[in-house]
Write the structure tokens for this entry.
Amino acid sequence: MTRDLARELKTAGFPLGAYRVGHVFYPPECGGEWSEHSRRHGVTIRPYDLDEHMQDIRDGYYCPDVADLIEACGERFVRLWVSTSIWTAESDEPSLLARGDSAEEAMAKLWLTLHRAKTAGQRQAQP
């Protein structure tokens, strides 16, 4: 998942559970002891990071895994498949689908699509 996509999830209010070892996060743009390479390409969280860098993880951009993304999509998620290295995530409404270079990217884009549709529907319902 790219830094921009992880930032977009955070900005949209993606529901994060507990931060976990093995997940990737992108350090915040400023501060901390992170190299430019880490800020650009992300860091895989180690147990040490959960103890020593928790604030950076919170301030940065956390990359949820496929299971987290499927759970966040809920019953709207129908299926995920790959064809010729392009991943596709589909919702219960076939017109709402998303593609990406990885399963996580496709699922993140699907969640964003569903979230935007839900948010737009809520705005239209308000008087």
